[in-house]
Specification:
- The chain is α+β, with helices and mostly antiparallel strands.
- Among the domains are: 75 residues, no CATH class; 201 residues, 2-enoyl-CoA Hydratase, Chain A, domain 1, CATH 3.90.226.
- Helices cover 32% and strands 26% of the residues.
- The chain contains 12 helices and 19 strands.
- The strands form 4 sheets. Strands 3, 4, 5, 6, 7 and 8 form a 6-stranded antiparallel β-sheet that branches. A 6-stranded mixed β-sheet has the order 10-11-12-15-16-19, sandwiched between helices.
Length: 418
């Protein structure tokens, strides 16, 4: 993809779709079974029947002629000997999905045409049906990890916590291969239920959650001891407008300092994140993006606006992606400090590549570097002040104020700057 196309794709980045927009069906596990069967069948076929001659003239810039012939031979075996009817479009979907799935990257996956159209529709507004959770792949447990809940969602009401590891969705056991199937299965029609088998520490829980219409409430705000407090739950649709409204209202009240809370925030739109930073930081570089060819894209703040009161950003181990971009920019600029625990470490960019009018591939195409040169992916952001909360509350969306050591540390920091 040309660099301009990449930039445009980045601006429209759908990373948040992993949490609530983009989901696949059960075709992954099915396609793996199909591929395995074809391999076994081909091995037997060479024993009992002469190898098929291929008159294919297919060419490829990626595959060798021998590899293309193997694919054609497998298709011919199915065509000539498979007992039952089959759909070649489904077979092609399975072949492409198997190829993409072999990359073993949870952020790179194939969408059928139906799934692609669904993702376009679900990405068009901030409402959808599900339980209201932000999700990612948990490599350590080969499962789905909950990064956080949408406020006032069915997931929050059912007691699901950030850090919960979802091992099974109804009867579907989660692995890397079925991760997106599981994310898809959590969504569903309003009023229906989904059963989640959850690992929380050493405890195994079964929680049934009734799906409902979800509207993203990305931002809340209040004033604590004349210090502004803005909680950003995700960098989803409309977050910049919501943040700016809260920021303008709080700043108009002559506050002494500002705290931005990004705990359990899974990330979202990079463009909105940069625009939010532009309200707080002086002109300068805040982020660098590097693609496979080494091409660099630098994100900057451009306006003369910058905050002139003490600033602290609170993060934890579930703060990911755009949250890490925001926190690192504040830290690198020196305009504020980051307080909490090391962040999640999700710093790659996905874009959607359409396939000849039928289906699409969501593919990891570049990675982020902070302004100071830190690779976010797999590393995360180290806070200026490392502060833990009691293990009982480590993954909670709500922590009692008197137990919230991270927030208290942020309040204390700002008071000491006055």
């Amino acid at each position: 993809m040309e660099n301009n196309d990449l930039k445009e794709a980045i601006e429209q980045e759908k990373e948040y779709r992993v949490n609530k927009q983009k989901v696949l069906t059960n075709a992954i596990s099915i396609s793996i079974g199909i591929v395995f069967s074809v391999i076994v069948l081909f091995a037997l076929y060479t024993i009992i029947k002469p190898q098929l001659s291929s008159s294919s003239t297919l060419t490829s810039e990626v595959f060798t002629q021998e590899q293309l012939q193997r694919l054609e031979e497998a298709a011919k075996i199915i065509e000539e000997d498979y007992l039952y009817d089959y759909d070649t479009d489904k077979m092609m979907d399975g072949a492409i999905e198997g190829m993409v799935n072999s990359l073993e990257n949870p952020y790179t996956y194939y969408e059928t045409e139906e799934e692609y159209q669904e993702s376009l529709n679900s990405g068009a507004n901030s409402q959808y049906y599900g339980i209201g959770v932000h999700l990612t792949y948990d490599q350590d447990n080969d499962a789905i990890r909950v990064l956080g809940n949408v406020p006032d969602s069915p997931a929050e009401a059912a007691g699901i916590q950030a850090g919960d590891v979802i091992k099974q969705v109804d009867d579907l056991v989660i692995t890397l291969d079925t991760y997106m199937d599981g994310v898809n299965a959590i969504k569903g029609e309003e009023g229906t239920s989904v059963r989640l088998t959850i690992l929380r520490g050493d405890e195994v829980l079964e929680i049934s959650v009734t799906r409902a219409e979800i509207t993203d409430n990305n931002v809340t705000s209040e004033i604590i001891d004349n210090i502004g407090y803005i909680r950003v739950y995700s960098f989803g649709i409309g977050v910049y407008d919501q943040f700016k409204q809260a920021y303008d209202e709080i700043m108009a009240q002559n506050i002494d300092g500002l705290i931005v809370d990004l705990r359990n925030n899974p990330g979202g739109y990079v463009k909105d994140t940069i625009n939010m930073l532009d309200l707080l930081l002086p002109k300068g570089d805040v982020l660098k993006l590097v693609d496979k060819s080494g091409e660099e894209t630098v994100y900057k703040t451009y306006t003369d606006d910058e905050i002139d009161i003490p600033l602290a950003v609170v993060v934890n181990q579930n703060s990911a992606s755009a949250s890490e971009i925001f926190a690192s920019a504040i830290k690198d600029s020196g305009k504020g400090v980051v307080i909490g625990t090391q962040t999640f470490g999700k710093g790659v960019v996905q874009y959607v590549e359409r396939l000849k009018g039928h289906g699409a591939i969501d593919i990891v195409s570049a990675q982020y570097f902070t302004a100071s040169g830190v690779v976010i992916q797999d590393n995360g952001i180290e806070p200026n002040f490392v502060v833990e909360v009691d293990e009982e509350y480590a993954n909670n969306s709500y922590i009692p104020r008197d137990k919230d050591t991270q927030l208290q540390r942020a309040l204390d920091y700002i008071k000491k700057q006055l």
